[in-house]
């Protein structure tokens, strides 16, 4: 019963199998291998983006930070939600890779900000003096850090504001599969067709070992990116194994099956919690549940080995309800959800 | 017959197996898992260094560049051989990670520099003005870029010079296993007992998928390294799979068996080339052969599909001998060496 | 009637004279000159800090950003007020120089934060994971961006919290003279005796051409700073002219006379505004007045050429009072204050 | 008799006067003042470049390093002479500001490299893998570190090679005035008409207090440079004083008069040394003399207080000739040259 994160779980068997399948014989290093060629093509096809530049890296922090460095100068302003992973959870990797860009946090309910808040922030940055830095890019997370999703029209509204100011729109898709599954959307409709310029398409949280794709829908934006990735120490010499993971995920729609599984578990968990006297802090739209749990339910669950995070790592006052984050994944089993709900209900 | 590099070959079956073996169940992220604990301990034991701090990253460039950033300020001078990977082959990753440190290349035969050359360079740096930057660290590669090895007494002589100037000694051991195997040395004797302060212990070139260990023999030198690695996007969330690779390599001495295999193939190749009318540019001491091949032998080999690099990527004059680099690996087969030698001999 | 900033005014005649006075003959470059030696000694004496390391740079942004780089690693957390110049007004120079440190803004009334808020923030940073970065330093501005001052006991309370967590305390003293004058305090009592570890002592806003002193009370903290300053392009070859400015300011207490003059003008301005029907947003404690002005008073003043900033650059609603910032300086004349007050009163 | 450097001398009286002349009254900060406007225009006119972007900074290191950051990504290759100031004497400021660019030193007689050497280096960089970084820019120094000059046709030949590879050409003109004076050339002919894209036009070594101009002949190349300069802490709030220095230099041709004076002194010194039994290492073409002096002449001069650098700071063997660098400046007096020559001749 581990709901701490989607990254506490292992690698999907088909992904592991793909590593074995490409293991035979010598291949060119640093991406000059047929597996990488095939995997890059597969993502272009999946996203219906024949001209896109697709590159693989091992971690989400690397993917996001490299994109920030690619799209923002050192004196750039990067607009994101105040809960954004790039702002809160990456040890200032974007600042490091970009050499000083300023993350400008925007607030907004349920982990999302809207076009009005963005327009206002951009306007301020534009009117500002040299002291304020220069507007550089906009970043949204989908699914968000609160497990909610921006739908295509919401993305498009933000893209319109960004583009009117000449700024590219980045989507941190560490849980992109969960967003697509949750929205019942189409990957192209949710990204470039809505105005996303660069997408980080997560693999690790969705069954890969350690793999993410960075996708530049406009190849001109990828100029020099291969050097940047190399200089960052993010290019595998045996690149085929990075590509093989991502390839395994898109073959036969595995990525979406896994995300649907995770999302379904979260939905069931959310409903069960409400029935058990808890309440949801935000709606469950992907694979995360943010809930208020009665104190005794929480204590019972913990005592029986359920693992999850108290939100904001705050110690709750005795007897008071606690706010928790529960994350499901491709590997979450039915019985784990059942067991947790039983515990919460005191059954 | 691919002798282009040791990284064109795949992953050793035992390493792949180790990935499967640790796949079951949920584990803590970012290194808080039992596999990582076990693997770090295994390297401390292997190196007879119970206090050492051991950390894993995926690429050699990341390992080296992070160490440079850890040991040198932005205004530091880093002494290395002019052929060093950190100076020539990492897209200035050390400069990037350290934010500007100056790589000061030293010359010396067979990919090695000696204590006198080092002392002279350090003396110049010390006498210099602010304009010259400040002496920061010394880096050697073992086995070297020329496939030669520094023995323990050679390392100790350099360490003495470095330490007298207050500088730490880093060993880039992307092919450390090949050096240990070639020298018949002991890992501890070749490193901390000879004065090495930080070792990058390569896994990828020796049968891993993508894994290197960074080992700080003095834990005080590792202060803050975990943050640095995180900020660099070099921490896997599913860290167990990085650790499992490195653990598989040290269990039952696999790492040394594989390196001996590679070295033996190189030795046989070198001897065969001499018998076939070629000549060695440097002695074969690890898993690389640098040789002058008669023009017709080279053309025959290439025509029949042998893959290897012309050294310095220079186009040879027609009819003239060519200088080539041939790299063997854990996966190089007896018959591949035989076939290449047959081709070179015109048999 | 220019109250836009203290940097719109020129250079005090004694400072200009000092440039001429040191102009004769050849002197050593890069600080190896007697003027620099004398000026550094003068600041050590002024601050009663015989062991302090004193260095001069030309701009406040350089002074602050170099100190941030000196005291924080790239993965550090720098605590400051949300209105701090290093956070809001330096084009992310601290992030650039430190290569990615995270400025963590604290809120608090009147441009100041207190020990409880600081302790809470530090506690969070300490409890956090690698994702949050590592606690590195605390920075306060005195006089603050709101023209208020931290007194010695307030500084000491913050220093205690910082030091208990092992963090150094930096004071951005771009308007340090105004704080000392406003508080009637002693430079030593307000800095190292209260626990300040590094002080940026401003000259430019107080009558210099372009000069600031960076003062490390513990010489160990200055290790390598000369290289850092050189690498930043912040070392004058003709260093005597930088030193001469700062020397002129401390001779015969000029710095304090100028600050008292500026503060007195601000005090008179503040009182006059209240009499004229305006109100003060914060008390006037140094050389800045933040006030709400009746709409018609503001329009009259502007129409007659008074220059000052609307606060937050917000366009006021028609007829509504406006919030303005008025800055006085060593060069503000009595009649300018009188004229502005007359205009505001409609006299 | 100080021939150590051109920066040991003071500020020309007309430059000092210019500081006083612009001291009256309030002016806009950060460059929004009429002196800056006038000075920028004066340099555009001097260089017959009406569209050029002109910006002022205080030090040559800042000027060069900011340009490197402007023209090269972190993974760029910057081609320069092995004696170049940016490579040898700026504490790796270009690497720091560009965040890792690789300075690739070219050799060549008399401090200059030719188009063939440049073409060969660029070809290598272009053919290289990601490991080598990407060709980014070419930098030449004029007058060179050896006091020689590139004439317009030499510059044009290098510019042609650079531009054919798509690379901009930067000229480090810390001693640009001396080059113009030495060549009897025209500033436009020696720069943009010969293909220079960005010029650092030195003021400090030629009588300014601390001032250099950075000139982008194509305004598109200056995009974002103002932010970069601000983030670097290189923007004076009282910018008028930086501009006033540079303005004073160009008014009435002062810059050229001063350079001619310095060059004439060097020429006379060089001729005198040859007559005194010494020999020139390179021809005297600007304001530096590199000479081999008989041991006794050198000892006599030193004993009587002559100040200059032994070249490469090497201690000469007793009785052997020594190689020295002698630098003249706008402030070098006739009698100083006479006195030194008398000493060398043993008169």
TrEMBL record, chains A, B, C, D:
InterPro entries for this protein: ArAA_b-elim_lyase/Thr_aldolase (IPR001597), PyrdxlP-dep_Trfase (IPR015424), PyrdxlP-dep_Trfase_major (IPR015421), PyrdxlP-dep_Trfase_small (IPR015422)
GO MF annotations, alphabetized: lyase activity
Gene3D superfamilies in UniProt: Aspartate Aminotransferase, domain 1 (3.90.1150.10), Type I PLP-dependent aspartate aminotransferase-like (Major domain) (3.40.640.10)
Boundaries of every Aromatic amino acid beta-eliminating lyase/threonine aldolase domain copy: 3-292
Cofactor needs: pyridoxal 5'-phosphate
Domain of life: Bacteria
Matches recorded under Pfam families: Beta_elim_lyase
Record's keyword terms, sorted: Lyase, Pyridoxal phosphate
UniProt cross-references to PANTHER family, sorted A to Z: L-THREONINE ALDOLASE-RELATED, LOW SPECIFICITY L-THREONINE ALDOLASE
Family: Belongs to the threonine aldolase family.
Subunit details: Homotetramer.
Name under which the protein is recorded: Beta-eliminating lyase-related protein
Lineage: Bacteria, Pseudomonadati, Pseudomonadota, Alphaproteobacteria, Rhodobacterales
């Amino acid at each position: 019963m581990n709901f701490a994160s989607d990254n506490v779980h292992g690698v999907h068997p088909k992904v592991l199998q793909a590593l074995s399948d490409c293991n035979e014989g010598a291949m060119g290093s640093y991406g000059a291998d047929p597996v990488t060629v095939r995997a890059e093509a597969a993502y272009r096809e999946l996203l219906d983006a024949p001209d896109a530049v697709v590159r693989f890296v091992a971690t989400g922090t690397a993917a996001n930070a490299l994109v920030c460095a690619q799209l923002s100068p050192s004196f750039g302003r990067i607009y994101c939600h105040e809960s954004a992973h790039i702002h809160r959870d990456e040890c200032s990797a974007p600042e490091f890779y970009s050499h000083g860009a300023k993350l400008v946090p925007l607030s907004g309910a349920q982990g999302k900000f809207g076009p009005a808040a963005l327009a206002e922030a951009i306007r301020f940055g534009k009117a500002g003096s040299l002291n304020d830095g220069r507007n550089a890019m906009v970043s949204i997370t989908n699914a968000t850090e609160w497990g909610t999703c921006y739908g295509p029209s919401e993305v498009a509204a933000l893209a319109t504001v960004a583009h009117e100011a000449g700024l590219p729109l980045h989507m941190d898709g560490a849980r992109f599969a969960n967003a697509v599954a949750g929205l019942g959307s189409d990957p192209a409709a949710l990204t470039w067709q809505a105005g996303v310029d660069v997408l980080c398409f997560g693999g690790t949280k969705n069954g890969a070992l350690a793999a993410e794709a960075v996708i530049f829908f406009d190849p001109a934006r990828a100029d020099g990116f291969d050097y940047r990735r190399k200089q960052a120490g993010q290019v595998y010499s045996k690149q085929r194994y990075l590509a093989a993971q991502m390839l395994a995920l898109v073959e036969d729609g595995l990525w979406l099956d896994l995300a649907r599984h995770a999302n379904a578990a979260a939905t069931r968990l959310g409903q069960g919690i409400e029935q058990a006297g808890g309440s949801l802090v935000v709606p469950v739209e992907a694979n995360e549940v943010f809930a208020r749990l009665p104190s005794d339910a929480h204590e019972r669950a913990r005592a029986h080995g359920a693992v999850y995070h108290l939100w904001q790592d705050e110690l709750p006052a005795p007897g008071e309800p606690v706010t928790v984050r529960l994350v499901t994944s491709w590997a979450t089993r039915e019985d784990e959800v059942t067991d947790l709900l039983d515990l919460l209900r005191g059954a």
